[in-house]
Amino acid sequence: MDYHKEVIVILDFGSQYTQLIARKIRELGVYCEILPFSATLNNITSRNPKGIVLSGGPKSVNDADAPVCDLGIFPLDIPILGICYGLQLTVKLFGGRVEKSAKREYGMARLVIEKKEPLLDGIQDGSTVWMSHQDKVLRMPDGFKTIAHSDNSPHAVIKSVEGRIYGVQFHPEVHHTQKGRKILRNFLYKICKVKGVFSLKSFVDAATERIKKKVGDNKVVCALSGGVDSSVVATLIHRAIGDNLRCIFVNNGVLRKNEAAEVLDLFKDRLHMNLKYVDAEEMFLAALKGVKDPERKRKIIGKTFIKIFEAEAKAMGDVRYLAQGTLYPDVIESTSSKGPSATIKSHHNVGGLPRRMKLTLLEPLRELFKDEVRIVGKELGLPDSLIHRQPFPGPGLAVRIIGDVTRERLHILKEADSIVRDEIERNDRFRHIWQSFAILIPVKTVGVMGDERTYANVIALRVVESKDGMTADWTRLPYAILDKVSRRIINEAPGVNRVVYDISSKPPSTIEWE
Ligand code: XMP
Predict the structure, then answer these.
(1) Which residues surround ligand 1 with Cβ inside 6 Å?
(2) Number of domain units in the chain
């Protein structure tokens, strides 16, 4: 069965957890899509959903500008689950009373079950749930009953009498809710009565078929960067159409040490892809000569890349499609701010390319979240080292060399950076780290080596944890690791006599130094 035939629609009222709800539902074997709360009834029903989830949100249902969904969803014969704001909205719309309580209920609460109901099957009395709300239900609407409460929430779980509409005051999607997964599972399998046909393996098979059907005998061009998204896109399309996928890998001279060789080894030698390697190091370095301003570096790198890519793709002849690693967070039309990757990607936006080159976009990952892309990569046989790669900016080491990008300075940074990669990125203990890298600062300081005075470069170490790159905190690395990295850099990287550790968070700092 095609997993698109069994869809859950999540209406997003702006909760920070909306994407988490989607991830959890998919992990439970059901495909789901996030739509803005303002989606039209037509838009919702055109997906033929088996169930609708109303997310939480930052507003109060009593606010003048409180978000409200199309009321037409309630009379449909489709089960509904309101979470937090979603529950309060349901109560209010059906004539109940919701008021701001004096005290915000935040954190753990214990659930007391009043009635045995399919939604709470397998949930014990006293099970902990995670609350985060200020409004609470004071009077239930007619036609609804309470099936569980907590100390602070007399109506923590509610259902409509006929058993189609449910609401939970807490957040079943966060891991602090002990049996949250079970509650979502009950909603999906016992109330929406789904079969559960979605898995990332089913995605790979379906996506392969879709690509084959769409592309036919035409040719697809793909800019391979060696990052997770473009690698998974290329491998998936290659699985579908083999040699009709033409990959272009441009060495812009500001890649990490050995990176070009690693990409060629994997994609050309091991996966036998039709891959054109363009060594454009000279061209990029010449264009970057004397440029200190990071924005100018970005523009030069972006423009030079497009020029080369366009020429190479033209030389391939009759290419019809351009493959791109667009992910679901870029696609979601959300009430909350746009997905983080949208912001990151605008840095190296090549958006105008397909139209200029008269190519049609092929975006086989548009349904997936980043974690899912990693699992698909594994499913496709890509090595762990690639799947768990940290994000690496398009303009590469050029924004990590503060000031002039010269061959000599690139060499210093590549050596220092590769030590950081060895000790941190490639160490499974540090998989939770978002990015770890070295920066070359345009400052020299005095040191002493043996009996000699040195006057050499400083390397800064930046190691941060983050969910999406929008905010970040510096990592409290164990001293032993800091010590090892620092010693290795000073001993092994040429012309470095000092290493410093960046202990600033974002905001107010940024992740890159530039
Ligand atoms: P900042 O420095 O703004 O970085 O805190 C946030 C995230 O974006 C990445 N980044 C870039 N990625 N092209 C990219 O593809 C760029 O020009 C660029 N600048 C920053 C950065 O590595 C971090 O993950």
Answers:
(1) 298, 344, 347-348, 391, 393-395, 435, 469, 506, 510-512
(2) 3
- Which of these three, 160, 191, 222, is where a domain ends? 191
With tokens 């990959």, the residue in question is 247
CB neighbourhood size of 279 (10 A): 12
Q: How far apart are CA 507 and CA 491, in angstroms?
A: 33
Q: Take residue 427 and report the two structure tokens written for it.
A: 């160490």
The beta strands (E) that lie in 63-110 are given as: 80-83, 97-110
Residues recorded for the chain:
514
What single-letter amino acid sits at 261? Answer: A
* CATH for 249: 3.40.50.620
Q: Which domain holds residue 452?
A: 400-501
Instruction: Supply the pTM of this predicted model.
Output: 0.90
- Catalytic residue IDs: 84, 171, 173
What are the mean pLDDT values of the chain's consecutive 10-residue runs (514 residues total)? 96 94 97 96 97 96 95 97 98 96 86 95 95 91 96 94 97 95 98 98 97 97 95 98 97 96 96 97 97 96 94 93 92 54 41 76 95 97 94 96 97 98 94 97 94 96 93 96 98 97 96 96
Compute the distance from residue 485 Cα to the ligand 1 centre, in Å.
Answer: 23
Distance of CA 152 to the CA centre of its chain: 35
Interval between CA 374 and ligand 1 midpoint (Å): 20
For ligand 1, atom 20, name the residue with the nearest CA.
Answer: 393
